[in-house]
TrEMBL record:
The keyword Transferase applies. This is Prenyltransferase alpha-alpha toroid domain-containing protein. Pfam families: Prenyltrans. Gene3D superfamilies: 1.50.10.20. The keyword Repeat applies. The lineage of its organism: Eukaryota, Fungi, Dikarya, Basidiomycota, Agaricomycotina.
């Protein structure tokens, strides 16, 4: 499921005309990945269904402009069951709320066409307020966002939480100057953005497990998501070095790429 989503995104970036896209096959694939509880697995029959795959299924259906592969009432019920007492969403029911899966849940709700959305799955005003409060309190004094309550800030969650607030229409409440300062301090002088302060691309990090494992402290994942966070919530300083292409938050691509996808991925009408 994730690979299908990223493949369509990649082809959109390359401005493919999607003449060879098997649209009906993708719809059947999505349908075959939906589980009894409404969630979606990575492949049919796989035992790894969670909100990430739900987001991919919803995003693909939105780009195809074809929701026939999704049983929406069951899919939305699963999203609702992933909501926690804090106002965020866990990866699955009864899991701890995380910034990434909260983004997935909110994007799912926003991607569904208004005429197809059952009213019982819309966020109530108290639910919306609780979600906003939880997201905002995750912005640390250092300026970055943490993904879970009480955790250290992480560059990738600057996107997941910031994008969630943008979906809810309240990203004006983000301290954008502090956010840019945090991401700026995560940069490495030779390029790339690390996960957190003091970690640089290519810098070995020794874990505490026995035997210790040496891992890389940063990767393109954090560089991309940190950049996407700035595209959504640029600082107020007016510094042109922070100017990036506007981002379509729901599809998680530049507005130009998302527009291309929405124009070329759906089947051409006769």
């Amino acid at each position: 499921m994730i690979m299908t989503y990223t493949a369509i995104q990649s082809l959109s970036i390359l401005r493919d005309d999607f003449a060879q896209l098997d649209r009906s096959g993708i719809v059947r694939f999505i349908q075959s990945c939906q589980e009894e509880d409404g969630s979606f697995s990575t492949t049919p029959g796989a035992e790894d269904s969670d909100l990430r795959m739900s987001y991919c299924a919803f995003a693909i259906s939105s780009m195809l402009d074809d929701w026939s592969g999704v049983d929406l009432p069951r899919a939305l019920a699963f999203v609702k069951h992933c909501r926690t007492y804090e106002g965020g969403y866990g990866q699955a029911p009864h899991c701890e709320a995380q910034g990434g899966t909260t983004y997935c849940a909110l994007a799912c709700l926003a991607l569904v066409p208004r005429e197809k959305m059952p009213k019982q799955f819309l966020l109530s005003s108290p639910e919306r307020a609780k979600t906003i409060r939880w997201l905002l309190q995750n912005q640390n004094l250092a300026g970055g966002f943490s993904g879970r309550t009480g955790k250290e800030p992480d560059a990738c969650y600057c996107f997941w939480c910031g994008a969630s607030l943008e979906i809810l229409g309240v990203n004006i409440l983000v301290n954008t100057d502090a956010l840019a300062s945090f991401i700026g301090r995560c940069q490495y002088k030779f390029g790339g953005i690390a996960k957190a302060l003091g970690e640089h691309p290519g810098q070995p990090r020794v874990t505490r497990v026995r035997p210790p494992l040496i891992t890389l402290a940063a990767d393109p994942y954090h560089t991309y998501l940190a950049s996407a966070a700035i595209a959504i919530n640029p600082p107020n300083s007016g510094d042109p070095s922070w100017t990036l292409q506007p981002l379509d938050t729901l599809i998680n691509a530049s507005v130009a790429t998302a527009t291309w996808a929405r124009e070329h991925v759906p089947a051409r009408k006769p």
